[in-house]
Amino acid sequence: MNAIWTRIIALGAGTILGFAPLSSIAEPLPMPGQSESEWRYTLTPYAFLPARTSGTSTIAGTSVPLDLDFKDALDLLDFALAATFEMWRGDFGIIVDANYVQLEADGSLPSPPGATFAVDIRQKWLGVLAAYRVVDSTYGVQNQRYSIDLQGGVRYNSLRQTVDITVGAGPLPQLGGDEGWFEPVIGARAMWRLSEKWAAAVALDLGGFGAGGNDLQVGLNAGFDYQLWKKNSLRFGYRYYSMDYSTTLATGPFAYDVSQHGPYLGVTFRF
Predict the structure, then answer these.
(1) What's the burial of 38, exposed, middle or buried (CB within 10 Å: 0-12/13-18/19+)?
(2) Where do the TM regions start and end (predicted)?
(3) Smallest Cα–Cα separation from 84: which of 123, 43, 49?
(4) What digits encode the pLDDT tens for the residues 40-92?
(5) pTM score > 0.85 for this model?
(6) Most buried residue, 95, 176, 224, 259, by CB count within 10 Å?
(7) What is the CATH number of the domain that holds 162?
(8) Which residues, other chains included, contact 70 with Cβ-Cβ below 8 Å and sequence gap of 6+?
């Protein structure tokens, strides 16, 4: 396989994780003055902006080392949408995390004359987790509140990655394909109220555990919440994300062993 073909696979496989889903970025504690005896809801549209993507991707039995920055992924982005919805009453909560991203790339190959390629990449993600607040206490001389909640549930992943080469009168056999699987997810999150407007949170989620070929998926977030208005707040911080997935398609081994890190940014609406 020549260097041009290897680069196609690197761009296509490497950027599917370029806008990886970000779960559990909202927090279980109410804003000051908000009731806990009734259901309260938060909706957080967000974006994860990976400063670096590294690892190894395999398509049709060919493994390619990856070392991509955010610009590499942004250049290929066609459409992306992601949001987290949470509902809480007392110490019990439900978390729903949804993500869709589509990336496309096409162009000409230097040989044979007239040969073209097209890469189509799509990832859909939907997770539903139950959460329970196991710690609820205060700290410091101002008795600021902090909490810890544990989470568990299921997530559905759908992944498309195809590469089409056209030479002369017709296309060559397509490489890659579509995969979908359910996997268990567990998580934990700690939150500290810093002031009336500021809060901090750290969250860890683990998924996969071998289900559907996903050995382990790790997400670690650390960030802040700043109350912009009475019911809305800005969320920002830093995230580490990794995925170790492998399977075998009709065209050969298909795998990701990829890690990412970078900032995230979202806006939370409470109602």
Answers:
(1) exposed
(2) none
(3) 43
(4) 899 999 887 778 878 887 777 777 777 777 777 676 666 677 889 999 998 99
(5) no
(6) 95
(7) 2.40.128.100
(8) 18, 49, 50, 51, 262
